[in-house]
Design a protein that fits this description.
Structural class: alpha+beta
Bound molecules: zinc ion
Largest sheet: 11 strands, mixed
Radius of gyration: 26 Å
Number of helices: 14
Shape: globular
Amino acid sequence: MADDFLFKPFEEMTPEDYAAVGFKSGLEIHQQLLTARKLFCRCPAGRYSAKYDAEILRHMRPTLSELGEYDGTALMEFKTKKEIIYRINRETVCTYEMDDTPPFMIDEEALDIALGIGMLYDCIMIDELHIARKQYLDGSIPTGFQRTTIVGVDGKIPYKDRSIRIIQLGLEEDACREVSDVGHRRTYVTDRLGMPLIETVTAPDMRTPDEVAEVGQLLRRIVRSTGKVRTGIGAAREDVNVSVTGGTRIEIKGVPRLPRIPRLTYNEAMRQWNLLRLRAALERCGVTTKSFSATMEDVTKHVRKTLYQPVQSALGQGMLVMGVRLGGFKGFLRWQTQTDTYFHQEISDRVRVIACLTALPNILHSDSPGEGLSSAEWQAVRKTVGARDEDAVVLVWGPAADARLGAQEIVIRAKEATIGIPSETRQALKDGTNGFERILPGPDRMYPDTDLPPKRVEAERLTGLRAALPARVVDRERRYAGLGVPSDLVPVLASSPFAGLFDTMTGERGLSPKFASLGLAQ
Ligand SMILES: [Zn+2]
């Protein structure tokens, strides 16, 4: 299995290669709706500004769930000891968003748009909406939860010679925009908070990275064909989930642009495959979850005189240096995970996010001997942590509490390599690879919202909305192609707000379809 196949460079991978590793991917698309107001209050939507009148400070604290367990994300966010700052502009935020007043009834304009899109997806429409709270523990929503409701389920859209299943369509509130995240302080602006957006969840029906991007484009054309969604930076954000045979369903969050999806999903599939191969290779060296061993020690005094600049400057600020021994890991920190990315990156990411050691590099390890400490310093460090030849050693430095937490996270992440692929969410990076974002929240994130009653969706309302729906994008595309519209303009015109004008110009005015489409697609 895992050892039979090695990932080729991106350009050389074929659909058969993806089939060999069991590539599967699905999308969760968040799309802002073009409404005048926010979803559960009467603040204006879509007014972005860096201006703010006040700042509010919050700390995250984990609480036990009803099952008596801590949620993984909650615990992680608590470990980070972040101060969360919210910047508030009176013109775009009221007391609702800060959980000081109850919600208003759902915005009818937003609901109409969502219902219409649900019908374009061929969903089974829900006739009684129940508002739920979805836990959000990263601080991006000040109340700690998002109000959300499912408007349609079990839809499908035609794609190639098959269908892509739409699991559900939700209508929910947008979260805050992050402005910065440095050390123990994360800052958000609240203008976007509470704006209506739809969440489209597809089944994992895409079999290659290109298909994921194509389906993303297709869904975008469908929602834009209504003319009632926002466009521009941040108006549509994709979460992409990927898995391979034997792997874990991993979600890459907040992909800002669809053309980045193929490389991102390729790299995530490779990462999972290579982590499975790493587990097998460790096992061959006798390193298993059961036999795993690690030690950590304060090694500050052995590196006092180092010429390695990052550690030197840390010591200058009175910081602590911790050494971590990973039993039997020699060479494995250089195990490839993604394109030009190696296992030590997984460790560095955890240290950065959880121990808040955000200045990079934040670790140094013995599998890159050319850089860093002198051989005498390495020897002293290895002796202190009790390293044998077959062990790897990782250094981490920072304020005492952070360096100790960092050392613990190094051990945790290394041990996870013997288990497989950790359940976590990942963030998209510019080079097409992805990095650790947070530990996956538990499955019990949703609970009923007691502030709002269920809401009936009358059959007449759906009938009225259905009559006003635009023609299906696939049907339009087929018609345009038949009329002789150039093939590159067909998809542009099909989701264009000028599509109606095109019909007028080619019908009553008798213009040639080719000429009219060239003029309107500008
Ligand atoms: Zn408000």
